[in-house]
């Protein structure tokens, strides 16, 4: 079970109650009264514990599980031990995510404002928001209902944060509008100046960055990630995007709905992503590109050209995945031939 | 116009006053009395607004602009609509930058020290400096005239910050000397230990890092960027350098004047850059290299060797730009040939 | 000498006392009474100063040194000037590291808790720990003897920090156990949620991250580095690991003892490193890999497969170092051939 120093567990739950709440159906309704009190992995779960099978490579562990109950796809049901209650779900991992949220709902600090917080008198803070020690809220800022702001975070002048957001410690927000139910992890920086200047040997001259950052509802943004505000237009992150740690998003960039950006990726200024684009870790996109809906960029790739919707690109410079692997294979083959000749 | 929650606009300005202040000349002096009250893009500007044309690919939008006035190169003057006043400039973007600064001068918090700031009695803070809530100033530190320090920033023992600097929230400075008119964005870390140790299977042994970081005048350093102090010599960033977000600069590195380092680039220990070097995003330089004045490194490149002044290098390992593109083209050609044979 | 605004020097030391404390032996015991008062580089050291020779490329400077004493390998002893006392050591850099620590022991702030710190009444803080201004310590957290916590750092609920740790300013710790003698530089983020969610077009669903981060004794972790907590298992950094700035370590990753991870490298979820693995700067490891003890990964490499113990891999995708250089050479040769034909 999760370390109780850090986590508070809810439950136990009757399977008959739990299954519909996480989008599953009991294979045998007579199991509805059985109770589960925690989640665990397939190999470690025991009596009273709920597990799941999603990745096919763990399927062989299924017959040996001692779990009280298991979430799985119907195609694996026959392989499960007789003693384990089965929760059938088309997407077992999604179902597990919902179940785990029931057992471990996100913890909430008490509502209210710590006396060490500094809140400008012109700011509007919902009465049930929670402001931790040393928070600073600037003039005219608005903090929505139920929103939590961690210690030492700084919410600048005029910033709007929607309802039910979770803002970690040491976050800096300026020149931005944040939607509802957004999670910003510790050290996130949103709204600072973009990298805009007119190069000049006598001294580069700053171009005032006059746009904002607009973050849609239900986004999650990882630790120490930086998102610069627009130069004139806004920088926009669409609803439901998940952005990992140490990501850089330049000025005027726009992300559609549900994009996934993995750690240490970077997007240069004015590039536009459609919906559900996936950028793998340490990838980079040049500026002023258009990346179509559902496109995918491989880890460490460097994208220099537009990507049509639905395509996967890899490499530096990035190219279609098939072409990329052909290049890799070609180079390996030629190098081996040379090796054979010279060794 | 810029969102008034975040920006305060100055003006309006008479064109006759504005033009010389941003380095332009009115094409028709009879337009000197016309007024402009804001800046806008070429396609969005209307009456009373100032726009500019710099990138040739927008030239075709010029005849349709409804702007009150437009900053442009003399070669485009004939294509502008008759109603638009023209401000002729050799470098229109530079001229626009200056004009935009007039409309949107950087905002200043009031001078003085917030009562929650903790200032060591041996520190020297200029009377017109501004220290935000929760700032910490260590023993012997010096903060120059007109300098602004954002909430929660920590200025360590002995650090010297020059006049008219803008230090964002949550910045950490130690073991460093910062010039005048330097902008440090939120989360910048300057002066912490470099990555110096003697490897030993019984436990790596720390090598005390006895140098400093010296940042020249007029530098701008981006959010969450890290600059380690020297191991014995100093780490030096020359005057007028622009460094983007999430950049890493190792111990003993030196940058000349006016260098540009784009987001997520990294420079390993003891590498020396001349003046006006440009490192594109996500590039990396190995340690102990010499990069000549005006050299350029492409995005995602990995530099393993010295680069002579003025050369552009790309790739991993980086090579001259012409050679790099020849390699890319060769690999593509060979892979296609193979593809043709096998598909 | 080191800038006295930032460093306090101990000493002077008798060579006869110093040598055994840093693992060296005086070549001539009659030099035991000579005194040294500082360290300096081989070319800059003068009377009263201690230097060292480690890198063979500096050996030619040895005969000209004016240093009072020099740490070196016995093989260079004959080349040293007669006036310089010699401290013979098998690993001169390691020996220098220890000597420099004697001259410049890490500075300590006074013990005690600044009145602006906010310490939960259920936390346990050792009486000789030092809590700087604006520190926040959560419920049930434990801070070990002699541990120093810098301004604005946030230690979350239940976190355990061992004895004699040095935690810089603006560090965020949650859901983690930190060993003894650990150094965390400014802006380090440990224990936040891993990047775990079930992708879903209707909205990605968060998977609660129920593990912890466990950091072993004697680790050093660089500025703005992020280490996510485990999804169920823990994220583990073994004892004696050195991690540089801006590194990303994903959930469930495990590092053995004494690993070295250089700046801006990243390790994706569930990858396991053995002991003494070295990851060079800006390298990246895919998830679910096994990297054997003593393996090395080159700068900017992208590792997609397991690496056996002791092997060095380079490139994207990474391959054995010999194969990598063969590929580079092959491509160069083919590109030149093409260049010759076409130019």
Automatic annotation (TrEMBL), chains A, B, C:
Gene3D superfamilies: Hexapeptide repeat proteins (2.160.10.10), MurE/MurF, N-terminal domain (3.40.1390.10)
Alphabetized CDD domains for the sequence: LbH_LpxD (cd03352)
Pathway: Bacterial outer membrane biogenesis; LPS lipid A biosynthesis
Domain UDP-3-O-[3-hydroxymyristoyl] glucosamine N-acyltransferase non-repeat region span(s) in chain numbering: 35-102
InterPro entries: Hexapep, Hexapep_transf_CS, LpxD, Trimer_LpxA-like_sf, UDP_GlcNAc_AcTrfase_non-rep
Name of a matching Pfam family: LpxD
GO MF entries: UDP-3-O-[(3R)-3-hydroxyacyl]-glucosamine N-acyltransferase activity
Top EC class, one word: transferase
Presence of the UniProt keyword Membrane in the record: no
Keywords, comma-separated and alphabetical: Acyltransferase, Lipid A biosynthesis, Lipid biosynthesis, Lipid metabolism, Repeat, Transferase
Catalytic activity: a UDP-3-O-[(3R)-3-hydroxyacyl]-alpha-D-glucosamine + a (3R)-hydroxyacyl-[ACP] = a UDP-2-N,3-O-bis[(3R)-3-hydroxyacyl]-alpha-D-glucosamine + holo-[ACP] + H(+)
Catalytic activity, EC: 2.3.1.191
Active site positions: 251
Its job: Catalyzes the N-acylation of UDP-3-O-acylglucosamine using 3-hydroxyacyl-ACP as the acyl donor. Is involved in the biosynthesis of lipid A, a phosphorylated glycolipid that anchors the lipopolysaccharide to the outer membrane of the cell.
Self-association state and partner proteins as the record states: Homotrimer.
UniProt similarity note: Belongs to the transferase hexapeptide repeat family. LpxD subfamily.
Protein name in the entry: UDP-3-O-acylglucosamine N-acyltransferase
